[in-house]
Protein backbone atom coordinates (compact mmCIF):
# COMPACT_ATOMS: atom_id res chain seq x y z
CA UNK A 1 0.00 0.00 0.00
CA UNK A 2 2.75 2.47 0.94
CA UNK A 3 4.34 2.04 -2.49
CA UNK A 4 1.44 3.82 -4.19
CA UNK A 5 2.60 7.42 -4.77
CA UNK A 6 0.66 10.65 -4.82
CA UNK A 7 -0.02 11.81 -8.35
CA UNK A 8 -1.33 15.02 -9.84
CA UNK A 9 -4.46 13.09 -10.80
CA UNK A 10 -5.26 11.80 -7.32
CA UNK A 11 -3.84 14.40 -4.94
CA UNK A 12 -4.75 18.08 -5.13
CA UNK A 13 -4.32 20.33 -2.07
CA UNK A 14 -7.69 21.25 -0.59
CA UNK A 15 -8.62 24.91 -1.08
CA UNK A 16 -11.94 26.80 -1.07
CA UNK A 17 -10.69 28.68 -4.15
CA UNK A 18 -11.53 25.61 -6.24
CA UNK A 19 -15.25 26.26 -5.72
CA UNK A 20 -15.12 29.28 -8.04
CA UNK A 21 -13.95 27.69 -11.34
CA UNK A 22 -16.44 24.89 -10.72
CA UNK A 23 -19.26 27.42 -10.24
CA UNK A 24 -18.22 29.17 -13.46
CA UNK A 25 -18.35 25.86 -15.34
CA UNK A 26 -21.51 24.41 -13.81
CA UNK A 27 -23.58 27.53 -13.10
CA UNK A 28 -22.08 29.87 -15.73
CA UNK A 29 -25.22 31.91 -16.53
CA UNK A 30 -26.78 31.74 -13.08
CA UNK A 31 -26.73 34.93 -11.03
CA UNK A 32 -23.75 34.95 -8.70
CA UNK A 33 -24.17 38.33 -7.07
CA UNK A 34 -26.76 41.07 -6.68
CA UNK A 35 -26.05 44.45 -5.11
CA UNK A 36 -28.57 47.17 -5.83
CA UNK A 37 -28.79 47.37 -9.63
CA UNK A 38 -25.50 45.50 -10.08
CA UNK A 39 -25.91 41.87 -11.17
CA UNK A 40 -23.16 39.40 -12.12
CA UNK A 41 -23.24 35.79 -13.30
CA UNK A 42 -20.81 33.13 -12.12
CA UNK A 43 -18.95 33.36 -15.47
CA UNK A 44 -18.52 37.10 -14.92
CA UNK A 45 -17.48 36.71 -11.28
CA UNK A 46 -14.83 34.17 -12.23
CA UNK A 47 -13.51 36.43 -14.97
CA UNK A 48 -13.37 39.43 -12.61
CA UNK A 49 -11.54 37.40 -9.97
CA UNK A 50 -9.02 36.15 -12.56
CA UNK A 51 -8.38 39.73 -13.62
CA UNK A 52 -8.03 41.02 -10.07
CA UNK A 53 -5.68 38.17 -9.18
CA UNK A 54 -3.55 39.03 -12.23
CA UNK A 55 -3.54 42.72 -11.30
CA UNK A 56 -2.38 41.90 -7.77
CA UNK A 57 0.47 39.80 -9.11
CA UNK A 58 1.43 42.64 -11.47
CA UNK A 59 1.72 44.82 -8.35
CA UNK A 60 4.30 42.33 -7.01
CA UNK A 61 1.98 40.62 -4.55
CA UNK A 62 3.80 37.41 -3.64
CA UNK A 63 2.98 34.22 -1.79
CA UNK A 64 1.93 34.76 1.83
CA UNK A 65 1.69 38.55 1.43
CA UNK A 66 -1.22 39.98 3.39
CA UNK A 67 -3.83 41.97 1.46
CA UNK A 68 -6.17 43.91 3.75
CA UNK A 69 -9.58 45.31 2.88
CA UNK A 70 -11.86 47.69 4.78
CA UNK A 71 -15.27 47.43 3.16
CA UNK A 72 -18.89 46.45 3.87
CA UNK A 73 -20.64 43.55 2.14
CA UNK A 74 -20.02 44.54 -1.50
CA UNK A 75 -19.07 42.79 -4.76
CA UNK A 76 -15.45 43.89 -4.25
CA UNK A 77 -15.12 42.26 -0.84
CA UNK A 78 -16.76 39.07 -2.10
CA UNK A 79 -14.47 38.88 -5.14
CA UNK A 80 -11.37 39.43 -3.04
CA UNK A 81 -12.10 36.25 -1.09
CA UNK A 82 -11.16 34.38 -4.26
CA UNK A 83 -8.84 36.76 -6.10
CA UNK A 84 -6.44 37.33 -3.20
CA UNK A 85 -5.70 33.62 -2.52
CA UNK A 86 -5.64 33.02 -6.30
CA UNK A 87 -2.66 35.38 -6.30
CA UNK A 88 -1.09 33.28 -3.54
CA UNK A 89 -1.74 35.95 -0.91
CA UNK A 90 -3.68 36.02 2.37
CA UNK A 91 -6.92 38.00 2.68
CA UNK A 92 -7.45 40.12 5.78
CA UNK A 93 -11.00 41.50 5.94
CA UNK A 94 -11.00 44.24 8.59
CA UNK A 95 -13.95 44.87 10.88
CA UNK A 96 -15.71 47.96 9.51
CA UNK A 97 -17.07 48.83 12.96
CA UNK A 98 -13.61 49.58 14.34
CA UNK A 99 -12.43 53.13 14.92
CA UNK A 100 -9.21 54.50 13.44
CA UNK A 101 -7.14 53.26 16.38
CA UNK A 102 -8.51 49.73 16.00
CA UNK A 103 -7.84 49.68 12.26
CA UNK A 104 -4.32 51.05 12.83
CA UNK A 105 -3.57 48.30 15.36
CA UNK A 106 -4.48 45.64 12.81
CA UNK A 107 -2.47 47.28 10.03
CA UNK A 108 0.59 47.49 12.25
CA UNK A 109 0.29 43.83 13.25
CA UNK A 110 -0.72 42.36 9.88
CA UNK A 111 1.71 44.52 7.84
CA UNK A 112 -0.31 44.21 4.60
CA UNK A 113 1.27 44.85 1.22
CA UNK A 114 -1.97 46.35 -0.10
CA UNK A 115 -4.93 47.99 1.61
CA UNK A 116 -8.27 48.25 -0.22
CA UNK A 117 -10.64 50.85 1.22
CA UNK A 118 -14.31 51.33 0.40
CA UNK A 119 -15.30 54.95 -0.28
CA UNK A 120 -17.47 54.96 2.85
CA UNK A 121 -14.41 54.31 5.07
CA UNK A 122 -11.84 56.63 3.49
CA UNK A 123 -11.78 58.96 6.51
CA UNK A 124 -11.34 56.12 9.02
CA UNK A 125 -8.56 54.62 6.93
CA UNK A 126 -6.84 57.98 6.48
CA UNK A 127 -6.86 58.57 10.23
CA UNK A 128 -5.56 55.05 10.86
CA UNK A 129 -2.71 55.49 8.38
CA UNK A 130 -1.45 58.59 10.21
CA UNK A 131 0.10 56.33 12.85
CA UNK A 132 1.79 54.03 10.31
CA UNK A 133 5.40 54.81 9.49
CA UNK A 134 6.19 55.75 5.89
CA UNK A 135 8.30 52.63 5.44
CA UNK A 136 5.39 50.42 6.52
CA UNK A 137 2.61 52.07 4.52
CA UNK A 138 0.76 49.60 2.28
CA UNK A 139 -0.13 50.37 -1.32
CA UNK A 140 -3.62 51.90 -1.25
CA UNK A 141 -6.57 51.07 -3.49
CA UNK A 142 -9.93 52.86 -3.35
CA UNK A 143 -13.16 50.90 -3.84
CA UNK A 144 -15.63 53.39 -5.33
CA UNK A 145 -19.38 53.01 -5.68
CA UNK A 146 -19.80 50.63 -8.61
CA UNK A 147 -23.13 52.19 -9.71
CA UNK A 148 -22.53 55.89 -8.97
CA UNK A 149 -18.78 56.55 -8.66
CA UNK A 150 -17.96 59.35 -6.26
CA UNK A 151 -14.44 59.91 -7.53
CA UNK A 152 -13.03 59.61 -4.03
CA UNK A 153 -9.50 58.27 -3.80
CA UNK A 154 -7.15 57.13 -1.06
CA UNK A 155 -4.22 56.65 -3.44
CA UNK A 156 -3.60 56.46 -7.17
CA UNK A 157 -5.30 53.09 -7.66
CA UNK A 158 -9.02 52.33 -7.99
CA UNK A 159 -10.66 48.90 -7.76
CA UNK A 160 -12.65 48.72 -11.01
CA UNK A 161 -9.73 50.06 -13.04
CA UNK A 162 -7.49 47.49 -11.39
CA UNK A 163 -9.90 44.70 -12.38
CA UNK A 164 -10.10 46.02 -15.95
CA UNK A 165 -6.34 46.06 -16.47
CA UNK A 166 -5.61 42.62 -15.03
CA UNK A 167 -4.29 40.17 -17.64
CA UNK A 168 -4.77 36.49 -16.63
CA UNK A 169 -2.78 35.42 -19.69
CA UNK A 170 0.33 37.07 -18.27
CA UNK A 171 -0.42 36.29 -14.64
CA UNK A 172 -2.51 33.11 -14.32
CA UNK A 173 -3.77 32.04 -10.89
CA UNK A 174 -1.10 30.55 -8.68
CA UNK A 175 -1.59 26.95 -7.63
CA UNK A 176 -1.95 26.12 -3.96
CA UNK A 177 1.28 24.24 -3.35
CA UNK A 178 0.47 23.19 0.22
CA UNK A 179 -2.99 23.06 1.76
CA UNK A 180 -1.40 24.13 5.05
CA UNK A 181 -0.61 27.50 3.45
CA UNK A 182 -2.47 30.48 4.89
CA UNK A 183 -5.62 31.61 3.09
CA UNK A 184 -7.00 34.21 5.51
CA UNK A 185 -6.05 36.34 8.50
CA UNK A 186 -8.86 37.34 10.86
CA UNK A 187 -8.72 39.25 14.10
CA UNK A 188 -10.61 38.26 17.23
CA UNK A 189 -13.11 40.70 18.68
CA UNK A 190 -11.06 41.16 21.84
CA UNK A 191 -13.92 40.73 24.33
CA UNK A 192 -11.63 39.34 27.02
CA UNK A 193 -8.17 40.39 25.78
CA UNK A 194 -6.41 42.32 23.05
CA UNK A 195 -7.43 41.22 19.52
CA UNK A 196 -5.25 38.45 18.09
CA UNK A 197 -4.50 37.61 14.47
CA UNK A 198 -5.94 34.20 13.62
CA UNK A 199 -4.48 32.42 10.60
CA UNK A 200 -6.59 29.99 8.55
CA UNK A 201 -5.19 27.30 6.28
CA UNK A 202 -6.59 26.45 2.84
CA UNK A 203 -7.35 22.96 4.17
CA UNK A 204 -9.21 24.23 7.21
CA UNK A 205 -11.27 26.73 5.22
CA UNK A 206 -12.20 24.08 2.64
CA UNK A 207 -13.28 21.51 5.23
CA UNK A 208 -15.22 24.05 7.28
CA UNK A 209 -17.06 25.23 4.18
CA UNK A 210 -18.08 21.75 3.01
CA UNK A 211 -18.95 20.55 6.51
CA UNK A 212 -21.18 23.52 7.31
CA UNK A 213 -23.03 23.32 3.99
CA UNK A 214 -23.79 19.67 4.71
CA UNK A 215 -24.83 20.11 8.33
CA UNK A 216 -27.03 23.10 7.61
CA UNK A 217 -28.56 21.24 4.68
CA UNK A 218 -27.84 23.90 2.05
CA UNK A 219 -29.02 22.56 -1.31
CA UNK A 220 -27.82 23.75 -4.71
CA UNK A 221 -28.70 27.23 -5.98
CA UNK A 222 -29.65 28.91 -2.69
CA UNK A 223 -30.34 32.66 -2.53
CA UNK A 224 -28.12 33.87 0.29
CA UNK A 225 -28.62 37.26 1.99
CA UNK A 226 -25.45 38.85 3.35
CA UNK A 227 -26.84 40.02 6.68
CA UNK A 228 -23.68 38.69 8.35
CA UNK A 229 -20.51 40.78 7.80
CA UNK A 230 -18.04 39.08 5.47
CA UNK A 231 -15.27 40.26 7.80
CA UNK A 232 -16.66 37.96 10.51
CA UNK A 233 -14.69 34.72 10.03
CA UNK A 234 -14.93 35.27 6.26
CA UNK A 235 -18.69 35.22 6.56
CA UNK A 236 -18.60 31.94 8.50
CA UNK A 237 -17.03 30.52 5.28
CA UNK A 238 -20.14 31.28 3.19
CA UNK A 239 -18.10 33.62 1.00
CA UNK A 240 -16.74 30.38 -0.44
CA UNK A 241 -19.76 28.22 0.37
CA UNK A 242 -22.27 30.07 -1.82
CA UNK A 243 -19.98 29.45 -4.80
CA UNK A 244 -19.76 25.77 -3.88
CA UNK A 245 -23.54 25.47 -4.21
CA UNK A 246 -23.93 27.80 -7.20
CA UNK A 247 -26.02 30.20 -5.16
CA UNK A 248 -26.81 33.87 -5.56
CA UNK A 249 -25.19 36.35 -3.16
CA UNK A 250 -27.51 39.22 -2.23
CA UNK A 251 -25.41 42.03 -0.77
CA UNK A 252 -26.63 44.89 1.41
CA UNK A 253 -24.22 47.51 2.69
CA UNK A 254 -26.05 47.82 6.01
CA UNK A 255 -28.38 45.12 7.44
CA UNK A 256 -31.27 47.38 8.42
CA UNK A 257 -34.76 45.94 8.79
CA UNK A 258 -35.90 47.66 5.58
CA UNK A 259 -32.88 46.40 3.61
CA UNK A 260 -33.28 42.82 4.81
CA UNK A 261 -37.04 42.57 4.40
CA UNK A 262 -36.82 44.19 0.94
CA UNK A 263 -34.09 41.77 -0.16
CA UNK A 264 -36.11 38.80 1.09
CA UNK A 265 -39.17 39.95 -0.85
CA UNK A 266 -37.39 41.09 -4.04
CA UNK A 267 -34.95 38.21 -4.49
CA UNK A 268 -36.61 35.22 -2.85
CA UNK A 269 -33.96 34.82 -0.16
CA UNK A 270 -33.70 31.25 1.13
CA UNK A 271 -30.77 31.50 3.58
CA UNK A 272 -29.09 34.05 5.79
CA UNK A 273 -26.82 34.16 8.85
CA UNK A 274 -27.15 36.48 11.81
CA UNK A 275 -25.99 37.05 15.36
CA UNK A 276 -28.90 37.02 17.86
CA UNK A 277 -28.65 40.82 18.18
CA UNK A 278 -29.95 41.09 14.61
CA UNK A 279 -33.14 39.27 15.60
CA UNK A 280 -34.16 42.34 17.60
CA UNK A 281 -33.73 44.45 14.45
CA UNK A 282 -36.09 42.14 12.57
CA UNK A 283 -38.59 41.96 15.44
CA UNK A 284 -38.66 45.70 16.11
CA UNK A 285 -39.82 46.34 12.54
CA UNK A 286 -43.18 44.72 13.41
CA UNK A 287 -43.59 43.10 9.99
CA UNK A 288 -46.15 40.50 8.98
CA UNK A 289 -44.94 36.88 8.90
CA UNK A 290 -42.96 35.96 5.78
CA UNK A 291 -44.79 34.38 2.86
CA UNK A 292 -42.12 31.67 2.73
CA UNK A 293 -39.71 30.46 5.39
CA UNK A 294 -36.11 31.70 5.43
CA UNK A 295 -33.42 29.45 6.89
CA UNK A 296 -31.31 31.33 9.43
CA UNK A 297 -28.04 30.15 10.94
CA UNK A 298 -27.33 32.03 14.15
CA UNK A 299 -24.28 32.19 16.41
CA UNK A 300 -21.92 34.59 18.11
CA UNK A 301 -23.81 34.49 21.42
CA UNK A 302 -26.20 31.98 23.02
CA UNK A 303 -29.69 32.97 21.78
CA UNK A 304 -32.35 32.92 24.51
CA UNK A 305 -35.14 30.42 23.86
CA UNK A 306 -37.77 33.17 24.21
CA UNK A 307 -36.09 35.21 21.48
CA UNK A 308 -35.88 32.20 19.15
CA UNK A 309 -39.56 31.48 19.65
CA UNK A 310 -40.50 35.07 18.73
CA UNK A 311 -38.37 35.23 15.58
CA UNK A 312 -39.61 31.85 14.34
CA UNK A 313 -43.19 33.10 14.51
CA UNK A 314 -42.17 35.62 11.84
CA UNK A 315 -41.18 32.81 9.49
CA UNK A 316 -37.44 32.54 10.14
CA UNK A 317 -36.44 28.92 10.65
CA UNK A 318 -33.46 29.09 12.99
CA UNK A 319 -30.52 26.70 13.32
CA UNK A 320 -28.09 27.45 16.11
CA UNK A 321 -24.34 27.10 15.69
CA UNK A 322 -21.47 27.69 18.06
CA UNK A 323 -18.06 28.78 16.96
CA UNK A 324 -15.28 31.28 17.22
CA UNK A 325 -12.69 32.94 15.06
CA UNK A 326 -10.09 30.33 16.00
CA UNK A 327 -12.33 27.50 14.74
CA UNK A 328 -12.75 28.97 11.24
CA UNK A 329 -16.28 29.91 12.17
CA UNK A 330 -18.89 27.39 13.43
CA UNK A 331 -17.54 24.44 15.40
CA UNK A 332 -20.86 22.98 16.56
CA UNK A 333 -24.29 22.86 14.99
CA UNK A 334 -27.58 22.14 16.73
CA UNK A 335 -28.67 19.44 14.31
CA UNK A 336 -32.44 19.14 14.43
CA UNK A 337 -34.12 15.81 15.19
CA UNK A 338 -37.46 15.04 13.53
CA UNK A 339 -38.87 13.67 16.78
CA UNK A 340 -38.63 17.18 18.24
CA UNK A 341 -41.15 18.53 15.72
CA UNK A 342 -44.11 17.41 17.84
CA UNK A 343 -42.93 19.22 20.97
CA UNK A 344 -44.58 22.46 22.16
CA UNK A 345 -43.01 25.66 20.80
CA UNK A 346 -41.24 26.63 24.06
CA UNK A 347 -39.58 23.19 24.30
CA UNK A 348 -38.50 23.32 20.66
CA UNK A 349 -37.01 26.78 21.22
CA UNK A 350 -35.11 25.56 24.28
CA UNK A 351 -33.63 22.70 22.23
CA UNK A 352 -32.68 25.09 19.44
CA UNK A 353 -30.85 27.31 21.93
CA UNK A 354 -28.33 24.56 22.62
CA UNK A 355 -25.02 24.67 20.77
CA UNK A 356 -25.30 21.12 19.48
CA UNK A 357 -22.85 18.54 18.16
CA UNK A 358 -19.41 18.90 16.61
CA UNK A 359 -18.90 20.23 13.12
CA UNK A 360 -18.07 17.58 10.53
CA UNK A 361 -14.72 19.26 9.91
CA UNK A 362 -13.59 18.47 13.46
CA UNK A 363 -12.01 15.29 14.72
CA UNK A 364 -13.40 15.93 18.18
CA UNK A 365 -15.29 18.33 20.42
CA UNK A 366 -15.73 17.79 24.13
CA UNK A 367 -16.31 19.42 27.50
CA UNK A 368 -13.50 18.71 29.95
CA UNK A 369 -12.27 19.44 33.43
CA UNK A 370 -9.07 21.28 32.54
CA UNK A 371 -7.32 20.21 35.72
CA UNK A 372 -7.57 16.52 34.81
CA UNK A 373 -8.50 16.75 31.08
CA UNK A 374 -11.23 14.22 31.86
CA UNK A 375 -14.57 14.60 30.06
CA UNK A 376 -17.46 15.82 32.23
CA UNK A 377 -20.42 13.46 32.63
CA UNK A 378 -23.33 13.78 30.21
CA UNK A 379 -25.73 15.04 32.84
CA UNK A 380 -26.51 18.53 31.54
CA UNK A 381 -25.29 19.97 34.83
CA UNK A 382 -21.55 19.47 35.35
CA UNK A 383 -19.58 22.41 34.01
CA UNK A 384 -16.34 22.14 32.07
CA UNK A 385 -14.46 23.91 29.30
CA UNK A 386 -15.35 23.30 25.67
CA UNK A 387 -12.34 21.94 23.78
CA UNK A 388 -11.88 21.24 20.07
CA UNK A 389 -9.51 19.43 17.74
CA UNK A 390 -9.43 18.99 13.99
CA UNK A 391 -8.14 20.34 10.69
CA UNK A 392 -10.48 23.33 10.75
CA UNK A 393 -8.83 24.76 13.87
CA UNK A 394 -6.62 27.75 13.11
CA UNK A 395 -2.93 27.38 12.24
CA UNK A 396 -2.29 29.66 15.22
CA UNK A 397 -2.07 33.28 16.28
CA UNK A 398 0.17 35.41 14.09
CA UNK A 399 3.40 36.46 15.83
CA UNK A 400 2.07 35.44 19.25
CA UNK A 401 3.83 32.29 20.54
CA UNK A 402 2.76 32.93 24.14
CA UNK A 403 -0.93 32.94 23.20
CA UNK A 404 -0.43 29.81 21.09
CA UNK A 405 1.08 27.96 24.05
CA UNK A 406 -1.92 28.87 26.22
CA UNK A 407 -4.48 27.98 23.56
CA UNK A 408 -3.33 24.42 22.88
CA UNK A 409 -3.14 21.75 25.59
CA UNK A 410 -2.90 17.97 25.41
CA UNK A 411 -3.88 17.79 21.75
CA UNK A 412 -6.86 20.10 22.19
CA UNK A 413 -7.67 23.75 21.49
CA UNK A 414 -9.07 25.43 24.61
CA UNK A 415 -12.00 27.69 23.74
CA UNK A 416 -12.35 29.51 27.06
CA UNK A 417 -16.09 28.77 26.95
CA UNK A 418 -17.82 26.88 29.72
CA UNK A 419 -20.54 24.37 28.94
CA UNK A 420 -22.34 21.17 29.82
CA UNK A 421 -23.10 18.00 27.86
CA UNK A 422 -26.66 16.73 27.86
CA UNK A 423 -27.49 13.00 27.92
CA UNK A 424 -28.12 13.07 24.15
CA UNK A 425 -24.58 14.37 23.54
CA UNK A 426 -25.60 17.95 22.70
CA UNK A 427 -23.43 20.65 24.23
CA UNK A 428 -24.91 23.76 25.79
CA UNK A 429 -22.73 26.77 26.49
CA UNK A 430 -23.03 28.42 29.88
CA UNK A 431 -20.80 31.40 29.18
CA UNK A 432 -17.16 32.36 29.03
CA UNK A 433 -15.05 31.00 31.88
CA UNK A 434 -14.92 34.54 33.28
CA UNK A 435 -18.72 34.78 33.14
CA UNK A 436 -19.42 31.87 35.49
CA UNK A 437 -20.43 33.37 38.82
CA UNK A 438 -19.16 31.47 41.87
CA UNK A 439 -21.51 32.31 44.71
CA UNK A 440 -20.95 30.62 48.04
CA UNK A 441 -19.06 27.83 46.30
CA UNK A 442 -21.86 27.22 43.78
CA UNK A 443 -21.43 27.84 40.06
CA UNK A 444 -24.09 30.03 38.48
CA UNK A 445 -24.30 30.26 34.70
CA UNK A 446 -24.85 33.84 33.61
CA UNK A 447 -26.43 32.48 30.43
CA UNK A 448 -29.09 30.61 32.43
CA UNK A 449 -30.04 33.76 34.33
CA UNK A 450 -30.10 35.80 31.12
CA UNK A 451 -32.32 33.23 29.42
CA UNK A 452 -34.81 33.43 32.29
CA UNK A 453 -34.95 37.23 32.13
CA UNK A 454 -35.43 37.17 28.36
CA UNK A 455 -38.68 35.36 29.08
CA UNK A 456 -40.15 38.55 30.56
CA UNK A 457 -42.15 40.43 27.90
CA UNK A 458 -40.56 43.79 28.79
CA UNK A 459 -36.94 42.75 28.36
CA UNK A 460 -35.19 43.79 25.15
CA UNK A 461 -31.60 42.97 26.15
CA UNK A 462 -29.96 41.59 29.26
CA UNK A 463 -26.47 40.76 30.44
CA UNK A 464 -25.63 39.16 33.79
CA UNK A 465 -22.25 39.50 35.51
CA UNK A 466 -20.79 38.94 38.98
CA UNK A 467 -21.25 41.55 41.69
CA UNK A 468 -19.47 41.53 45.09
CA UNK A 469 -21.50 40.20 48.03
CA UNK A 470 -20.44 40.46 51.71
CA UNK A 471 -21.53 36.90 52.53
CA UNK A 472 -21.53 34.88 49.30
CA UNK A 473 -18.41 36.41 47.75
CA UNK A 474 -20.24 37.30 44.55
CA UNK A 475 -23.78 37.12 43.25
CA UNK A 476 -25.48 37.87 39.92
CA UNK A 477 -26.15 41.43 38.81
CA UNK A 478 -28.40 41.99 35.78
CA UNK A 479 -28.06 44.88 33.37
CA UNK A 480 -31.37 45.22 31.53
CA UNK A 481 -32.51 47.28 28.55
CA UNK A 482 -36.29 47.43 28.32
CA UNK A 483 -38.44 47.55 25.22
CA UNK A 484 -39.50 51.10 24.40
CA UNK A 485 -43.12 50.60 25.40
CA UNK A 486 -42.08 49.51 28.91
CA UNK A 487 -39.59 52.30 29.67
CA UNK A 488 -42.21 54.71 31.06
CA UNK A 489 -45.90 55.14 31.58
CA UNK A 490 -48.45 52.55 32.53
CA UNK A 491 -46.28 49.68 31.36
CA UNK A 492 -43.22 50.68 33.38
CA UNK A 493 -41.36 47.72 34.88
CA UNK A 494 -39.63 47.83 38.26
CA UNK A 495 -36.58 46.05 39.62
CA UNK A 496 -38.73 44.14 42.10
CA UNK A 497 -41.01 42.87 39.33
CA UNK A 498 -38.06 41.44 37.41
CA UNK A 499 -36.58 39.87 40.53
CA UNK A 500 -39.92 38.30 41.38
CA UNK A 501 -40.12 36.96 37.83
CA UNK A 502 -36.69 35.37 38.26
CA UNK A 503 -37.66 33.78 41.58
CA UNK A 504 -40.54 32.05 39.79
CA UNK A 505 -38.14 30.60 37.22
CA UNK A 506 -35.07 29.47 39.16
CA UNK A 507 -33.55 28.63 42.53
CA UNK A 508 -33.36 31.76 44.68
CA UNK A 509 -29.56 31.67 45.00
CA UNK A 510 -29.36 32.16 41.23
CA UNK A 511 -31.62 35.22 41.24
CA UNK A 512 -29.82 38.54 40.63
CA UNK A 513 -29.32 40.62 43.75
CA UNK A 514 -29.55 43.79 41.71
CA UNK A 515 -31.06 44.96 38.42
CA UNK A 516 -29.52 47.96 36.69
CA UNK A 517 -31.62 49.52 33.93
CA UNK A 518 -29.69 50.84 30.91
CA UNK A 519 -30.76 52.30 27.56
CA UNK A 520 -28.69 49.69 25.74
CA UNK A 521 -25.92 47.25 26.55
CA UNK A 522 -22.36 48.25 25.67
CA UNK A 523 -21.10 46.31 22.64
CA UNK A 524 -17.80 45.95 20.87
CA UNK A 525 -17.15 46.41 17.17
CA UNK A 526 -18.59 42.99 16.28
CA UNK A 527 -21.80 43.55 18.23
CA UNK A 528 -20.89 41.36 21.20
CA UNK A 529 -21.80 42.59 24.66
CA UNK A 530 -18.79 44.00 26.51
CA UNK A 531 -19.15 42.08 29.75
CA UNK A 532 -15.72 43.24 30.89
CA UNK A 533 -17.06 46.81 31.07
CA UNK A 534 -20.17 45.61 32.91
CA UNK A 535 -18.09 43.63 35.41
CA UNK A 536 -16.08 46.75 36.15
CA UNK A 537 -19.28 48.70 36.73
CA UNK A 538 -20.73 45.94 38.91
CA UNK A 539 -17.68 46.04 41.20
CA UNK A 540 -18.83 49.42 42.43
CA UNK A 541 -22.34 48.20 43.21
CA UNK A 542 -23.71 46.37 46.19
CA UNK A 543 -26.73 44.13 46.70
CA UNK A 544 -29.94 45.54 48.10
CA UNK A 545 -29.89 45.92 51.87
CA UNK A 546 -32.48 43.20 52.36
CA UNK A 547 -30.29 40.68 50.57
CA UNK A 548 -27.14 41.39 52.58
CA UNK A 549 -28.35 39.63 55.70
CA UNK A 550 -31.18 37.41 54.53
CA UNK A 551 -30.17 33.71 54.22
CA UNK A 552 -31.10 31.94 51.02
CA UNK A 553 -33.06 28.74 51.75
CA UNK A 554 -32.59 27.46 48.18
CA UNK A 555 -28.79 27.55 48.31
CA UNK A 556 -27.16 24.12 48.70
CA UNK A 557 -25.45 23.84 52.09
CA UNK A 558 -21.95 23.17 50.81
CA UNK A 559 -18.93 23.62 53.05
CA UNK A 560 -17.78 26.44 50.77
CA UNK A 561 -21.09 28.18 51.29
CA UNK A 562 -20.99 27.70 55.06
CA UNK A 563 -17.48 29.15 55.21
CA UNK A 564 -18.80 32.37 53.71
CA UNK A 565 -21.23 32.92 56.59
TrEMBL record:
Lineage of the organism: Eukaryota, Viridiplantae, Streptophyta, Embryophyta, Tracheophyta
GO BP annotations, alphabetical order: phenylpropanoid metabolic process
Biased segments, Basic and acidic residues type: 534-553
Start and end residues of each AMP-binding enzyme C-terminal domain: 449-528
Superkingdom to which the source organism belongs: Eukaryota
EC nos: 6.2.1.12
Keywords recorded for this protein, A-Z: Ligase, Magnesium
Region (Disordered): 534-565
Family per record: Belongs to the ATP-dependent AMP-binding enzyme family.
Name of the top EC class for this enzyme: ligase
Protein name: 4-coumarate--CoA ligase
Amino acid sequence: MDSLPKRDANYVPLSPVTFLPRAAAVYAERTSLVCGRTVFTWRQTYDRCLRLSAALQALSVSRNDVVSVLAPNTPALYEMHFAVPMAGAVINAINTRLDAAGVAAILKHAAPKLLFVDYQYIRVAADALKSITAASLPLLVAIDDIEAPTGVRVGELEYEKLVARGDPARHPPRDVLDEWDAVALNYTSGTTSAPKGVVYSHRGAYLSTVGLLLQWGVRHEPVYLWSLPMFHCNGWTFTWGVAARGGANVCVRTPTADAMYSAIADHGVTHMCAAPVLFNVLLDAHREPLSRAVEVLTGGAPPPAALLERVERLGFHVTHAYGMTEATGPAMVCEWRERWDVLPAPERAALKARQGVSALSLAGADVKDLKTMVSVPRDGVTLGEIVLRGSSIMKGYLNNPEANEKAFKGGWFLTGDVGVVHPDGYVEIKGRSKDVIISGGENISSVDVESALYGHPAVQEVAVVAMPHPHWGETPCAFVALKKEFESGAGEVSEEELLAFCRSKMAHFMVPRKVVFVEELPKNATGKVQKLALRERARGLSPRAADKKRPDPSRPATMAAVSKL
